Amino acid sequence: MKDYNKKKIPRATAKRLPLYLRNLTILDTKGVARIKSKELSDITQVPSATIRRDFSYLGELGRSGYGYDVAFLIEVFSHILDSNEESRIAIVGFGNLGKALANNNFRRNENLIISCVFDTNPEIIGKTIAGFYVYSMADFKQIAQEKNIRIAISTVPSEHAQEAIDIVVNSGITAILNFAPDRVEVPDNISMRYIDLTTELLTLLFFDHNYKKTPLAVTS
């Protein structure tokens, strides 16, 4: 596999690569061997010109008139996204959302593994719930290092998110997914992504109202 210079891939393009990979994987399971940018555009809701530009940063991935080989694209994007490498995940906040994420446990990618969960509620700390032992946030750094955690997912409400994220950052973890929409302060070396369910729902309604003729792919 070609050694791609990941730092030269624009951020906007990098954000779309998981979307491409997810939909291409679905197509592969359905027996689709090749696809053109227009067809992929219909599925992902990303303009075909943008898809071709994104792919151009990675070299010659397809051929004019033929399109793209689905299996080859999956191999390329999996390599770039390191999706074939095991990544251990910690969930911070084991309420309803935390439990839902833990129960899903990223079945679409067996290399994304939820290894431990944390909370501050004394009523559940030290108990095994939904198959997960609930650790105290006071022990986050020790447990995260013992279990080689690479990613933290925070489901802590906005009013307590900064305190929780500070603990995660102090443990040495630099990749954080935050389900609280309000921004928190983190050092420049931290890769932070936010998921705002309200924004996602409003976006979904917009597409549902205005793009009825085009099939939508699930993107998050």
Describe the structure in your own words.
The structure is a single chain. The chain has helices spanning 11-29, 37-44, 48-56, 70-80, 96-104, 140-146, 158-170, 197-210, and strands at residues 34-35, 62-63, 67-69, 87-92, 112-119, 128-129, 132-136, 149-154, 175-178, 191-194. The protein has 220 residues and is an alpha/beta fold. The chain has 2 domains: 6-80, Arc Repressor Mutant, subunit A; 87-198, 3-Layer(aba) Sandwich (Rossmann fold), CATH 3.40.50. The protein has a 7-stranded mixed beta sheet, sandwiched between helices. The longest helix is centred in the first third of the chain and has 19 residues, at 11-29. The model has no long low-confidence stretch (mean pLDDT 86).
Largest sheet data: 7 strands, mixed
Q: Which series of helices and strands comes N to C?
A: HEHHEEHEHEEEHEHEEH
Number of domains: 2
The CATH homologous superfamily of the largest domain is termed: NAD(P)-binding Rossmann-like Domain
Overall 3D form: elongated
The unreliable regions are none
Secondary-structure map with pairings?
Elements: H1 11-29, E1 34-35, H2 37-44, H3 48-56, E2 62-63, E3 67-69, H4 70-80, E4 87-92, H5 96-104, E5 112-119, E6 128-129, E7 132-136, H6 140-146, E8 149-154, H7 158-170, E9 175-178, E10 191-194, H8 197-210
Parallel strand pairs: 4-5, 4-8, 5-7, 8-9, 9-10
Antiparallel strand pairs: 1-3, 2-3, 6-7
Helix pairs in contact: 1-4, 2-3
